[in-house]
Amino acid sequence: MVENSEAGTILNIEKLNVSYPIYEADPVHALRGLDLKISKGEIIGLVGESGSGKTTLARSIMQLISQPGRVDSGRIEYDGQDLATLNEKELRTLRGNDIAMVIPNPRTELNPLVTVGMQIANVARYHLSLPRKEAKAMALAMLEAVQIPDPLRRFKAYPHELSGGMAQRVVMAIALICSPRFIISDDATSGLDVTVQTQVLELLQDLVQQQGASMLFITRDIGITAHYCHKVAIIFAGEIVELAETKNFFNNPQHPYSVMLLSAFSHNPKLRGMWSKAAEAPPEGASGEGCYFAPRCVRASDKCWAEHPLLRTSGEAHGVRCHHPVER
Amino acid sequence: MSDVLTVKNLIQHFPIAGSRSVVQAVNDVSFTVARGETLSLVGESGSGKTTVGRCILGLINPTGGDISFHGEKIDKRNNVRGKNLLGKIQLVFQEPAESLDPRVRIGVTIGEPLRSLGERREEREKRVREIARRVGLGEDSLYQYPAELSAGQQQRVGIARAIITNPDLIVLDEPTSALDPTARSEIIDLLIRLQKDLNTAYLFISHDLSTVRYLSHRVAVMYLGMIVEQGSAPDIFSRPRHPYSIGLLSSVLLPNTNLERSSEVSLQGEIPSPIDLPEGCFLTSRCPFVETQCRAEMPKADDIGGGHLVHCFKHDNVIDEEKATLDYFERFQEEAEKLLISGQ
């Protein structure tokens, strides 16, 4: 099990609203009042289905929401500094140096015309202002750190010459070369085979902890979070619905949506029948301000349709956004 | 049970243009699939799972070996496109969105295989309605375009298109890997229900082992174009004997913090290139138990009872018996059931 050592907040997201306008229609609200605090040295797993706002969150932290999407309200504070107040030049120094992102699909994201060694070295040259020779030496050391066999030869390889697992390691080297203090991993291991996935995850976990960094680990696979994260946050329809220490979460999941996800993973038809149902239309006269999960929730009551639940934190810092949390 | 499909010593090599090297994608694969049975092919990418599926469909001509369907040989002349087999073997693709024509309405897509069979229009429309109901698609969606459906519904279309000809065998190539967990379990339920109703045989190609555990009758573990171990699903999952199967199974991350991952065998490195196959056993580069004999010759299949075949010299002492019988998937199921029922 992983231990959480340092205290103090590194990233604080408050009431973040992000929307994407649509021509002649209502905008899509990707994030709706999302709150999230990440402590120093912490690895937090963010789990959600496609369309839940996971990637939008990652991009808003990097201040990279692409047009016409926009941040409607809310604040993102990194190390006490409001990211929205920084100009593009300051952001460029922050990205890469302080906050780094490990991306999925490494083979499409790497530049196909530049050797992987130079792609890693270029990051060091730009962000750490190192001369060419030193940057190269550092890139080589980084290739060794991410345990690529035969790093001298791989340094001169082009991305297409690498396997998926190795390309993922190169992307990790690029993200980690400047020793960032905060790392975002957006579904970074989803394309890998299970045997390679565990190797890459173990390596990422080790490197993050060695450097004393924090990580937001975004994934669709709730199984990964059970083994590699300190905390688990469940995101649904643009807000966090449950947040707890990993052990507490898996031994006592409380939000009906979390329970539904876990039962889907078990494949057990009895459990799934108990916790999932087809989406239901709101009852007559519903205000539209209720819980976002109410249409699919087996526990939905009149209160759920009328009133949006707040994230309530009970014993041992276990937060649940539900009027009728599951009790055991 | 009669065998629908028999694959014997299948070999598939692809020459590389401009070089004398050959990609040895499938190396001597043999298995059978019986009526109403699901055989799963599991393994890492590059292990040749999809190539086997494509050979069976007659999309590529195998370099060697025999594939027979109901005892009849499938070859260049007699394949899925020929009169005899048209519509008898069907395929469901991995990416539902990419396998549907974006400019053709769902109803037409589902009916297309019947058109190839020369079915009349009224008959086709009747069948399309019936099949759509069976896979849980509403009447309205027949007039929609693929982009208007969710990924789960798109995959239902893929399945409807496959079963409309009443095939005896469906090759499912990673049909759930692009889906969210809830959609995935719905599709799996649908597949199981259809199999019970229609008695179709499935060849299920996947690397999602928890899904494989749930729906297969038998499992074949592939590595570098070879089946290294095959047997009934309970045997493979609770008594795996090949080091590769053990390593693969213990790499699966189940959502439960109380189940410590077994570290009996940890597979280091990655699958080698199928261009230069290693001498002897293919796993030598990653196996922790490798010995001189393993490097010299390829182990033959050893039947350890109940059709459980293992290709390994050392399968008797790879893992001690007590630990080998732990089925992590089974224990996860039990724990999940205890935990998740308790809240109701």
Structure description:
The complex is a heterodimer of chains A (328) and B (344). Chain A has helices at 54-61, 88-97, 106-109, 116-128, 132-145, 151-155, 164-176, 194-210, 222-228, 246-251, 256-266, 269-275, 302-306; strands at 9-22, 25-39, 43-47, 70-78, 81-82, 99-102, 182-186, 214-219, 231-236, 239-245, 311-314, 318-321. With 328 residues, chain A is of the alpha/beta class. Chain A has an eight-stranded mixed β-sheet with strand order 6-7-8-3-9-10-12-11, sandwiched between helices. In chain A, helix 4 packs across helix 5. Mean pLDDT of chain A is 91; it is low at 1-6. In chain B, helix 2 packs across helix 3, helix 2 (106-116) packs parallel to helix 4 and helix 4 runs parallel beside helix 5. With 344 residues, chain B is an alpha/beta fold. In chain B, 32% of the residues lie in helices and 21% in strands. Chain B has an eight-stranded mixed β-sheet with strand order 6-7-8-3-9-10-12-11, with helices on both faces. Chain B has a four-stranded antiparallel β-sheet with strand order 2-1-4-5, covered by helices on one side. Chain B contains eleven helices and twelve strands. The chains are: A alpha/beta (328), B alpha/beta (344). At the A-B interface, helix 7, helix 8, helix 9, helix 10 and helix 11 of A face helix 5, helix 6 and helix 11 of B.
Short summary of the structure?
The complex is a heterodimer of chains A (328) and B (344). Chain A is of the alpha/beta class and 328 residues long. Chain A has helices spanning 54-61, 88-97, 106-109, 116-128, 132-145, 151-155, 164-176, 194-210, 222-228, 246-251, 256-266, 269-275, 302-306, and strands at residues 9-22, 25-39, 43-47, 70-78, 81-82, 99-102, 182-186, 214-219, 231-236, 239-245, 311-314, 318-321.
